[in-house]
Amino acid sequence: ECYIQNTAREYAKIYAAEAEPLEGFGEVPEIIPIFLVHRPANNIPYATVEEELVGEFVKYSVRDGKEVNFLRRDSEAGQKCCTFQHWVYDKTNGSLLVTDLQGVGMKLTDVGIATLAKGYKGFKGNCSISFIEQFRALHQCNKYCEMLGLKPLRTTHQKQRKAAALKSKNLPNSSTVKKTVPKKAREPRGFFSSEH
Fold first, then answer.
1. pLDDT tens digits for 60-89?
2. Are 185 and 55 in contact (CB under 8 A)?
3. Which SUPFAM superfamilies match (predicted)?
């Protein structure tokens, strides 16, 4: 839990460094740190500790990407969380996605990370690869994605799929290709066939 959240926190710091200087971007979501505490005298010797978040707790993204969340789509914090996901996806060439973003305002906690099956630079997340696929299919860019210069995912993905479909459609199957030779080419000049 600590490893996942603190890894996501490092990505959030880099995202903040790129986004905060942009004119009009404003406050950037922050993933709060989580600490592992050893309590040898306790029945449960290990516990995690983090800052208490006071206020309305909102899920800005869900692990499977299927839930329609109006606070995510319509709020500034929700849009910036979606942009953060897009930014991480873009920076890792689609190999890693910070997901399950939730918290109070711009302070987030209990996040998840999805990676491709082989992981990303030796790191494996705690969420299924299907979350990456669903994000790619469902993400809708907003003004913050545009401010960061992020390209729409669906347009790129749809273009790649169309190109692949056209390519396979235009390539003839060797078993269906008929070789035709023009009639004049079949018989040499001056040769007459006769039936006897």
1. 876 544 554 555 667 899 999 999 999 999
2. no
3. Protein kinase-like (PK-like)
Query: Against a cut of 0.85, is the pTM above it?
Result: no
Alpha carbon distance 52, 54 (integer Å): 6
DSSP state of 99: E
Q: Is 84 inside any structural domain?
A: yes
DSSP element (H, E) containing 80 = helix 76-91
94, HSE (Cβ side, Cα atoms, 13 Å)? 13
At a CB cut-off of 8 Å and minimum separation 6, what does 82 contact? 60, 61, 72, 73, 139, 140, 142, 144, 145
User: CA dist 46 to 1, 6, 95, Å?
Assistant: 12, 17, 31
CB 50 within 8 A of CB 34: yes
Q: Does residue 9 form part of some domain?
A: yes
Domains identified in the chain, total number: 1
On the CB side of 175, how many CA atoms lie within 13 Å of its CA? 0
Q: What is the pLDDT of residues 11-54, one digit of tens each?
A: 999 999 999 999 999 999 999 999 999 999 999 999 999 999 99
Contact 89, 148 (CB under 8 A): no
- In whole angstroms, give the CA distance from residue 82 to residue 101: 9
